[in-house]
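So, can you check this one?
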Amino acid sequence: MTRVKRGYVARRHRNRILALTSGFQGAHSKLFRTANQQGMKALTYAYRDRANCKRDFRRLWITRINAAARENQITYNNMIHSLYMNQIHLNRKILAQIAALDKDCFVEILRIIK
Protein backbone atom coordinates (compact mmCIF):
# COMPACT_ATOMS: atom_id res chain seq x y z
CA MET A 1 0.00 0.00 0.00
CA THR A 2 1.32 3.39 -0.90
CA ARG A 3 1.96 6.04 1.66
CA VAL A 4 -0.53 8.88 1.82
CA LYS A 5 0.91 12.24 2.72
CA ARG A 6 -2.02 14.40 3.73
CA GLY A 7 0.01 17.58 3.76
CA TYR A 8 -1.88 20.63 4.93
CA VAL A 9 -5.25 18.81 5.14
CA ALA A 10 -4.46 17.07 8.43
CA ARG A 11 -2.87 20.20 9.88
CA ARG A 12 -5.87 22.30 8.87
CA HIS A 13 -8.22 19.76 10.50
CA ARG A 14 -6.23 19.78 13.74
CA ASN A 15 -5.97 23.56 13.80
CA ARG A 16 -9.73 23.92 13.36
CA ILE A 17 -10.33 21.65 16.34
CA LEU A 18 -7.74 23.50 18.44
CA ALA A 19 -9.26 26.85 17.44
CA LEU A 20 -12.67 25.61 18.57
CA THR A 21 -11.27 24.70 21.97
CA SER A 22 -9.12 27.77 22.53
CA GLY A 23 -9.95 29.12 25.94
CA PHE A 24 -10.41 25.69 27.48
CA GLN A 25 -8.09 24.91 30.38
CA GLY A 26 -4.90 22.89 30.25
CA ALA A 27 -4.58 20.02 27.80
CA HIS A 28 -8.16 20.55 26.67
CA SER A 29 -6.93 23.38 24.47
CA LYS A 30 -3.38 22.22 23.77
CA LEU A 31 -3.39 18.51 22.90
CA PHE A 32 -5.34 17.44 19.85
CA ARG A 33 -6.90 14.26 21.19
CA THR A 34 -8.23 15.73 24.43
CA ALA A 35 -9.19 18.95 22.66
CA ASN A 36 -11.17 16.92 20.13
CA GLN A 37 -13.02 15.08 22.89
CA GLN A 38 -13.77 18.27 24.80
CA GLY A 39 -14.85 20.04 21.63
CA MET A 40 -17.38 17.31 20.87
CA LYS A 41 -18.59 17.38 24.46
CA ALA A 42 -18.92 21.17 24.38
CA LEU A 43 -20.97 21.04 21.18
CA THR A 44 -23.21 18.38 22.73
CA TYR A 45 -23.79 20.56 25.78
CA ALA A 46 -24.46 23.59 23.59
CA TYR A 47 -27.09 21.69 21.60
CA ARG A 48 -28.77 20.38 24.74
CA ASP A 49 -28.73 23.71 26.55
CA ARG A 50 -30.26 25.66 23.69
CA ALA A 51 -33.48 23.78 24.42
CA ASN A 52 -32.99 24.08 28.18
CA CYS A 53 -32.59 27.85 27.85
CA LYS A 54 -36.00 28.13 26.21
CA ARG A 55 -37.49 25.95 28.95
CA ASP A 56 -35.90 28.01 31.72
CA PHE A 57 -37.09 31.32 30.31
CA ARG A 58 -40.64 30.01 29.97
CA ARG A 59 -40.57 28.93 33.63
CA LEU A 60 -39.27 32.37 34.63
CA TRP A 61 -42.01 34.16 32.69
CA ILE A 62 -44.71 31.96 34.21
CA THR A 63 -43.35 32.63 37.70
CA ARG A 64 -43.36 36.39 37.13
CA ILE A 65 -46.87 36.38 35.68
CA ASN A 66 -48.15 34.23 38.54
CA ALA A 67 -46.63 36.55 41.15
CA ALA A 68 -48.16 39.63 39.55
CA ALA A 69 -51.52 37.93 39.07
CA ARG A 70 -51.71 36.78 42.69
CA GLU A 71 -51.10 40.35 43.83
CA ASN A 72 -54.39 41.08 42.05
CA GLN A 73 -56.32 38.12 43.53
CA ILE A 74 -56.28 35.83 40.50
CA THR A 75 -54.24 32.70 39.87
CA TYR A 76 -52.02 32.19 36.85
CA ASN A 77 -54.17 29.32 35.63
CA ASN A 78 -57.40 31.31 35.74
CA MET A 79 -55.73 34.30 34.15
CA ILE A 80 -54.40 32.36 31.15
CA HIS A 81 -57.76 30.64 30.72
CA SER A 82 -59.57 33.99 30.79
CA LEU A 83 -57.14 35.45 28.26
CA TYR A 84 -57.93 32.64 25.84
CA MET A 85 -61.66 32.90 26.45
CA ASN A 86 -61.56 36.65 25.72
CA GLN A 87 -59.32 36.06 22.69
CA ILE A 88 -56.51 38.24 24.00
CA HIS A 89 -53.41 36.91 22.31
CA LEU A 90 -50.45 37.91 24.47
CA ASN A 91 -47.65 35.44 24.90
CA ARG A 92 -46.00 34.73 28.22
CA LYS A 93 -42.86 36.72 27.43
CA ILE A 94 -44.85 39.89 26.76
CA LEU A 95 -47.12 39.32 29.76
CA ALA A 96 -44.08 38.91 32.01
CA GLN A 97 -42.55 42.14 30.69
CA ILE A 98 -45.80 44.02 31.21
CA ALA A 99 -46.12 42.58 34.73
CA ALA A 100 -42.58 43.63 35.63
CA LEU A 101 -42.37 47.02 33.93
CA ASP A 102 -45.92 48.41 33.72
CA LYS A 103 -48.14 47.40 36.64
CA ASP A 104 -50.98 49.70 35.56
CA CYS A 105 -51.19 48.08 32.14
CA PHE A 106 -51.17 44.62 33.73
CA VAL A 107 -54.00 45.60 36.07
CA GLU A 108 -55.93 46.94 33.07
CA ILE A 109 -55.51 43.60 31.27
CA LEU A 110 -56.82 41.82 34.37
CA ARG A 111 -59.76 44.22 34.55
CA ILE A 112 -60.66 43.42 30.94
CA ILE A 113 -60.63 39.66 31.45
CA LYS A 114 -62.60 39.60 34.72
User: Anything to note?
Assistant: The mean pLDDT is 95. Residues 8-113 form a domain with the c-terminal domain of poly(a) binding protein fold (CATH 1.10.1900.20). The chain is about 75% helix and 0% strand. The two ends are 82 Å apart (CA to CA).
